[in-house]
Amino acid sequence: MKHAIITLLIAAFALLANAADKGTNPKSDAHPQDGVWKPIAAVLGGAKLPKPALDAITLRVSGTNYEVTVEGEQHSDKGTRTLDTTTTPKRITIKSTEGANKGKTFLGIYEMKDANSMRVCYDLSGTEFPKEFKAPKGTQFYLVGYRRQANATPSVPERK
Q: What's the number of domains the chain is made of?
């Protein structure tokens, strides 16, 4: 379950890196979604994740890369993301290149609520894009809300 959570966080991180939602972040740099994000609520297959699990997760976005770390885990999950802003809801494809999910692809949908919050729903099976922001029992869907962390610096090295 930790690996699934890490993957979902990565997806969210990647999503924030270059979200096409103009004007959602007051920063004027080239990657306005860069930053450090923490989950504030999450549901995996109908089960709400406990606060201690959420508190252990950190998502960092820098440029086109993401990194998800979980306190107590030796290795983080890193990778890239691709956004499709032509659909409603908007779609994200996460590809893990390092860590426990290396080689896996996760499909999801996302929505920027404002400059400092967003929600993402992932299909951890990697077979379909969710159609709505729900993670019902009996599915491998993961729905998570994130909040940007103030005064935190993303430190994800650029991939070549």
A: 1
